[in-house]
Amino acid sequence: MSRIGKKPIEIPSGVDVKVEGNNITVKGPKGELNKSLNKDMKIEINDGVLTIERPNDSKEIKAIHGLTRTLIYNMIIGVTEGYSKQLEIIGTGYRAAKKGKVLSLNLGFSHPLDLEDPEGIEVEVPSANSIIIKGIDKQLVGSYAAKIRSYREPEPYKGKGVKYIDEHVRRKVGKTGK
């Protein structure tokens, strides 16, 4: 039994949820999100409470039940509060700069990396060593942060690279001198 799937979602004031077939649209103060969900799930809205019911107890449907509830909940949180990821750049000469809608990263390559912000994502660079990625779509924010991190992942010997602010890098001991 999916405990997550059974939990009802309370729709906050100022948020409008519309269900048309297997498409769901969530409008809120920060924007609007659309998503296509599994057609087997039954989504009902009664008195500001959204519930999701599954048609049968097959293993596949049970797995999708909790996923569907979580996706809808993330959409509601996204349009009310939004999501953000914070990255930290560690290393001599490694830095970030923002030029309009382009994020410029110097990560030890022969040329700077220029990344254009995706639609629906806002990138801030408060200092040369930190990047804040904000948006209403949790998946888009996370994948863009992972893309930036993938250019220079933190290495275990000196800890140089791009890491999440709350990430702990396991350090290794280097070679010992003679």
From TrEMBL:
PROSITE patterns: RIBOSOMAL_L6_1. Gene3D superfamilies: Ribosomal protein L6, alpha-beta domain. Coiled coil: none annotated. Pfam families: Ribosomal_L6 (PF00347). It comes from the Bacteria. Keywords: Ribonucleoprotein, Ribosomal protein, RNA-binding, rRNA-binding. InterPro entries: Ribosomal_uL6-like, Ribosomal_uL6-like_a/b-dom_sf, Ribosomal_uL6_a/b-dom, Ribosomal_uL6_bac-type, Ribosomal_uL6_CS. GO terms for cellular component: ribosome. Residues 11-82, 90-164 form the Large ribosomal subunit protein uL6 alpha-beta domain. Belongs to the universal ribosomal protein uL6 family. This protein binds to the 23S rRNA, and is important in its secondary structure. It is located near the subunit interface in the base of the L7/L12 stalk, and near the tRNA binding site of the peptidyltransferase center. HAMAP family: Ribosomal_uL6_B. Part of the 50S ribosomal subunit. This is Large ribosomal subunit protein uL6.
